[in-house]
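Could you help me review a protein record that somebody else here produced? This is what I was given.
***
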Amino acid sequence: MSVNSQSRRQFLQTSTAAAAGSVMPYWFSSRPTLAQEAAKSPNERPVVGCIGTGSRWHAVGRHALNFADCVAVCDVDALHLDEARDIVKREQSKKGRDVAVAMYEDYRELLDRGDLDIVTIVTPDHWHSKIAIDAMRAGLDVYCEKPLTLTINEGKQIISVLNETQRVFQVGTQQRTEMGQRFLQAIAMIRDGRIGDVQKVTCDIGGAPTSGEIPVVDVPRGLNWDMWLGQAPMVDFRFKEGGRWGNSRCHYEFRWWYEYSGGKMTDWGAHHVDIAQWAIEQNGDGQGPVSVEPVSVEHPVPFENGYPTQPDQYNTATKFEVKVMFENGVEMRIVSNSSDGNGILFEGTKGRFHVSRGRMRGGPVEELESNPLPDGAVAEVYGGRKPTSHMENFIECVKTRSQPISDVWSHHRAMTTCHLSNIAMRLGRTLNWDPESEQIVGDSDAQQWQGREQRKGYEIDVPV
C-alpha cells in the first residue's frame, strides 16, 4: 500500500473515531465544506472507481470528482468507457490531480484492484444489485443510482450483505437532498398537522413511451452485449432511429423493458413513492402496504401469465392507476396522469396540497405566509440542519461511518411498493402483502414474482 493510501485510510479511521463523540447529525457541521477540505488535503480524498459511465454518470461521476480521486472507470460499451476516461483525466487535471485512470470492461477486475475506497454504480437497473453486493463484499462503500433493485428479493439480499459487511451505502434518490427542498417542507407541514390526519396520497409519476416494432440489428462495435444483459435472458439486439436516444433494448431506453427495469413505476416511483412513504411514516421495518390493487393498466404489447408476448417493442405499462392501502389506513394512488400533474398530492382531514420539483400549491401552502412553520420544522425532518448535496453527504458518511440520508432500508420499503404494483399490473389482480414478513399472502403464483430467474454465470449468491 502506498504512503498516500495509508494516509487516506488513516484519515478515514480517524474521522470515524471523531464522529463517535459528536452529538450533531452526521451531515451537518459549521466547518468548511468537504470540497474545501479535500482541495486543501489530497490525502483526505477517497479513491473511487466508477462502474457504468453512460448518460446518468455524467452527473453522478462528475459530482464525485469534487470529493474523490477517480483511478478507474468501467463500462461494457467501449465508447462510454473512452469518453469517461477522457472526462476524468480532463477534470482531475484542471484541479492539479494528474491521476492515472485505468479502464475496465468487466467490473470484477475493477473491484479486484485493492486500492479503492468507494464505487459509484450507474448501470442499467438490472445490474445494480449484483454489482453492489460484489462491491460491498470487496470491502468498498457504495453510491448506487436508483431504483436500487429490480425485484423485492434483491432488496432483501442487499440488506443482508449490508448488515454483514457494515459498508456505507447511499442510494441516488437526489429528491431527498438537492432536488428536495420543497419535499422537505411538505413533510414538515404534514408533521406540523397542517392538513390534519393524512387520508390519501396521490403520486403522479407519468407514463412510459411506446416504440412500435424495433428491428433486430447487429450489435454495435465495442458493446459487450452478453455482459450488458447480465442476469436477463439472452435476446437479439434491437435498434431503430427515433427520439433522443433511438429506440432500443439498450442504454437509456432499457427503462421501458420489464427485463431490465420497471418502467415509470420504478423510474419515478423511486422518487415520489419514497417521499410519500417517508411523509406518512411507512418506510421503516415492519411498515408498508397491506394490499395493492391494479385499478387500470395499459401495456403496449399483449401479456400472457404476466409476460409480454412480443419481443420487438417496449413492454412496460404506458398508462396505469394502482390503489395501495397501508397498515395505518392511508390510501395511496400511483398514477400515470392526474389533473395536478407530476408530483405528490397530500389530502388530510383539514386540507390538501400538491408538491412537485417546481412548486407547491394549495390552501395550506398559502397559509404559510401568515402562519409559517415553527423555526427548525423543516430541519427537523432530517433531525438537524439542511444537507449540502447527495454526493457530499455520501462522502461525509464514508468518513464518519454513518448512515447516509438515502439509506437502503427505507429505499427497499418504497421499492417494495413499486415492485408489488408492477407485479399486480402484470398479473392483473390485487395482491395482499404482509409488511412484517415481507411476503405476498395467499397467492403462491404471485409469490414467485418476488424474485426472477438469473442467467447462469450472473447469479447472486445470497440466501433470501
Residues 408-427 form the longest helix (20 residues). The first strand starts at residue 47 and ends at 51. The chain has a mean pLDDT of 90. The chain has two domains: 3-178+395-400, 181-382+408-450.
